[in-house]
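User: Run a structure prediction on this.
Assistant: Running it now.
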Amino acid sequence: MQKTIVLFLVIVFTTAACAASGKQRAPGDQAHSPGSVDQPQLLLAHARDTQAKKGCKAALAAYRVTASFGDGYDIAQYELGACLLTIEAENKVEAVLFAQEASFWLTRAAWAGNARAQLKLAMALSGAPAAGGDTLSPAPADAMKWALVFEQNSARALYNMKPVSPTVMDHLNAALNPETMAAAQAFADGFKPITMAAFAAPRRKNTETGFQQPQRPEGRQRRRR
């Protein structure tokens, strides 16, 4: 009798342990997960959601991680730069740091061929009153370069983007001499995209099979040669 009871208890505890170890999360448990280092699309969605609910400053960390994925994520670089321009800094030093970082990411996205970043730089650097409040320190020559690159960007037609504001272009034309205008046109005519290197996720250890090859970031497709 005692052996039967002991055997029964062993079976009960073994079954409970197996059930606990094999228990999986419900499908909705990770619905709001920000993703991991090989899921940039989830990270970008998390950044956008955070920005919509809590504002740009709260979303900066997620945007920075996503933008750092490099090639293929110029949209995150643009959104990070544009976001930084809208933040109200707590002091002068922070304002300078935000402006420098915004310029860096917008320029990176613009060089990658992102039309919205090119337009944003043309407006933000123009110094024109019509450019609005989200601006950088005026640099009319650079603004004209990006304005002309934007005008030649085929993505404008694809996304039905309007040209640079005529008021801003009039301001730049009045501010620049013929030599500077010619240099800006040469820059636009010779423009070729330059992208950041794509991030490759590190190898992750699997307890059953050992180390696995890194996965390609979610949302990226292998380019055809």
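Residues 2-21 form the longest helix (20 residues).
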